[in-house]
Design brief:
This protein is mostly helical. It has 12 helices and 2 strands. It is globular, with a radius of gyration of 25 Å.
């Protein structure tokens, strides 16, 4: 801390927060001494770690926000100075890939890093790069993060279905039905399973969807009714 000038500290949010922590310890030195030097040292360390994590979380969130802004950017002529625009779709894709790749590499294992991996997989699938999409989705699915892992499993199941590996996709979705998360409910996963098998096992798909016709979650009931309607029109 002695190497930083006051001006530099003011320009660095994390450094400033740590400075406040050190000042607190200095001002309450007598109380801290009563707890012993080791205890005081642990307290300082815990405060610093807490502040550092909050600071790092903010940095990761900002990086994710910037990447998502590119992901959702428009293509064509800029009509609004506040809306990010790229001349071509290829340039938008290139910029998004760069932003998400850097985010995933720098913050590997964090929520923001996993979200970046998920979008890299989604974009790869959209571009027809099946091998890359599968690699990214599997990384998130196997990460141990249940909420984002459940999303990745659904995407991976769809990818497998497009390759004719319906049974593999079904096993993945069933694992989400058995263990739903805050991001993928049991009902949403059931709809995904019915969608997956609607062509190979329409009778079972209808059996899965019928109880969801009147589900209180409007998005679930609406999707179930839509799929049932499409199946009836065939």
């Amino acid at each position: 801390m002695a190497r930083l000038t006051r001006k530099e500290l003011k320009s660095d949010k994390f450094a400033l927060e740590v400075q406040h922590s050190v000042e607190y310890v200095t001002e309450h030195r007598q109380q801290l001494v009563r707890w012993g030097g080791i205890a005081a040292g642990i307290i300082v360390l815990l405060v610093a770690v807490f502040l550092y994590r909050n600071y790092e979380h903010g940095v990761r969130q900002q990086a994710l926000h910037s990447a998502m802004r590119i992901q959702n950017a428009t293509v064509g002529n800029a009509n609004n100075e506040f809306v990010l625009t790229f001349p071509t779709e290829a340039e938008r894709q290139k910029a998004a890939s760069k932003a998400f790749t850097e985010l995933a590499a720098k913050y590997s294992g964090s929520d923001e890093g996993l979200i970046a991996e998920f979008f890299l997989g989604t974009n790869a699938a959209d571009q027809g790069n099946v091998a890359e999409a599968e690699r990214r989705f599997k990384l998130v699915a196997d990460s141990g993060n249940k909420p984002y892992g459940s999303l990745a499993k659904l995407s991976l199941a769809q990818l497998y279905a497009s390759q004719g590996k319906v049974a593999d996709g079904e096993r993945l979705i069933q694992s989400v039905i058995d263990h739903p998360t805050v991001l993928v409910s049991k009902e949403s996963a059931t709809v995904a399973l019915a969608e997956l098998i609607r062509n190979t096992d329409p009778q079972r798909a209808r059996k899965l969807l019928e109880p969801l016709r009147s589900n209180p979650r409007s998005n679930v009931s609406r999707t179930a009714l839509t799929i049932l309607g499409e199946m009836s029109n065939k």
